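Researcher: Here's my situation. A collaborator sent me these components and asked whether they could plausibly form a single complex. I don't have experimental data yet, so a predicted model of the whole assembly would be a useful starting point for our discussion.
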Amino acid sequence: MNKVSLIIFREYLTRVKKKSFIIATFLGPILMGAVMFLPTYFALNTQGNQSFQVIDESGFMGAVFVSDNEVSYEYISTNLDIAKSDLLENDVDGLIYIPEFELNEPKGFALYGASNQSISTLSSIENTLELHIESLRLLASGLDKEVIDSFEVNIDLNTINLSNSGGEQESSSGAATIIGYIASLLIYMFVFIYGAMCMRGVIEEKSSRIVEIVLSSVKPFELMMGKVIGIAMVGLTQFVLWIILTGCISMLISVFMSPEALEMGAANGEMSSEADMMATALSALGGINMTLVLSAFLFYFIGGYLLYGALFAAIGSASESDADAQQFMLPVTAPLIISIISLSLVLQDPHGSVSFWMSIMPFTSPIIMMMRIPFGVAPWELIFSMFMLILGFLFTLWIAGRIYRVGILMHGTKVNWKILAKWFMTSD
Amino acid sequence: MDLIKIDHISKAYGGHQALSDVSLTIPDKSIFGLLGPNGAGKTTLIRIITKIIHQDQGKVFLNKEEITYDLVRKIGYLPEERGLYKKMKVGEQLIYLSQLKGLSRTEAVKRIKIWLEKLDLKSWWNKNVEDLSKGMAQKVQFIATVVHEPKLLILDEPFSGFDPVNADLIKNEILELRDKGATIIFSTHRMESVEELCDNIALINQSKKILDGSVKQIKEEHKKGQYIIDYTGILPTKESVDVLSQTDLEGDLKRAHIKFHQVSKPNDLIAQLIVSVQLFAFSEKIPTINEIFISKVSPSHE
């Protein structure tokens, strides 16, 4: 076997066999699934069982609150004080009190409950009351009910992207934002986690003094490349496993959730708002080229990791402990952090000049380009950016290799930027 | 035949001269000792031979060819700064290091098993390196250095960190490797090991080579006409003999460390002595490498 592949193999195996890798690989998708699943679950379930009592003293709010699958309303005619004292014993979530009031001065409404109500519950009750009183006032002003009904509008904004070829593409900037954010954050995380892993690996070799033994068999650059590539493969393995596991988990979830959703749809004759949102998101996903997003993700992950991984390896070669490495970390990782901070800027104008240049610059392009791709990027921009990234990581690998070959054998020197530059300039 | 020729090597780190104009030849199938105090430049020279660092001037030849990376990879090299992957198992680690030296996996496993048995580490195959004692780890490193049966072995301070028993074990392995036809270069600042092991030595001090040659020849050259004698009676006058030290043995018997003014054959010297003393023992004081080393590097010598 070739020596570099031996090194890659060792770096890969020792890491993949680690408990922490296995735990992270399985925990990641479960957490991700939980983040996606739990809010929906709570939204569907907790509110589904709410029940309210209504006391209407005004006499003209009789059919305002209509029970549905999620909330049930019960009109009662008992005295407010009695109802209040019964409230805690009865199994209801709250008591809506509608006093006698003047149409032009609606006051004194109250919601009694054993516990605090959620904001969505409050706003839904307020909304219902407001709408009804509004229409009552309109009626009182002499407008016909049919006229009032005809005022009601319901707008669902469809966003359509025009492409140069003249085709129309339905998309959702919401879905694009979410996909862009997830992809950018994942790249950021991966580059950071695996870059740091690379650095620690180099520090371990240096501080345990194995490095000179290994260097009697291979060149420093081969050792560095073996490590960088081996760890890249660990990252890829984790990523692929995450995708597979997340797929499995979300399938399980959808099997678990769908009967409920179907039932609800049948009962109401309409989809619940969450299911509606999901459907919109799914149809918008169709508009975003997921193959492009995924393959670009892989490219920018590998490219970005190589670019930073090489620099992290160089930092490691100059340090004897993690603490030594700290002083070099910030300047090296600054472009990554700036990229993450700039994401909101990019979102405001995905095709503006700031977004464009940041997605061309190799140090920021992995994160920024992943944010832009879901919004549609011209092929030449993508090719230009990828080309620059390849140049970028070849450049950092070259720099890192020159620092590494000297630094890895240096012990006991206090290293600063000047010394790094000197190592870099040292001739072979 | 000379295996290695070092030709006018110089190396400076920043302002510090680590080696200046060092030339050496290292004969084939012998043990070569590179001696010198700490910081003399031994490790630098070894790192230049193994191409880990690059000389500023001069050349290194191996078998009359200028040394290349590919030739270096065949050397067995035990660095001074040595360690192992702490989290890896002993067996796995040795297999990895042997594969890097070009052995196939099966061949590596076979040889490593033999070596582990030889050095009493057989039961440690599946143990993590971090559980080994320092001496054991050193043995594992030694195995990693020799497992591919190199023609040339370079050992930088091979005995540091060993207890006397294990140092002896390693010493015998080194001698055995030499007898099998390997050439061994080792550096040390401890002289005890040198006389038993080395056929040839070079002494380096403050970046310069001070002397080199075979151990026998160097000792011969550094004899100073000094003798140890056991005697009774009175030694000749100071005109012919200097008494460097003297101790009383039993009765009238005395032992003296003496130096003759003229250099001549032992029989002539004895003839001078027996005129005035009764001689019981007469032996030439041959300097140890340690003494030569100290006399050469001590500040008074400069």
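Model: Some features of this prediction you could bring to your collaborator: Chain A is about 70% helix and 5% strand. The beta strands of chain A are 50-56, 71-76, 94-98, 110-113, 159-162, 168-171.
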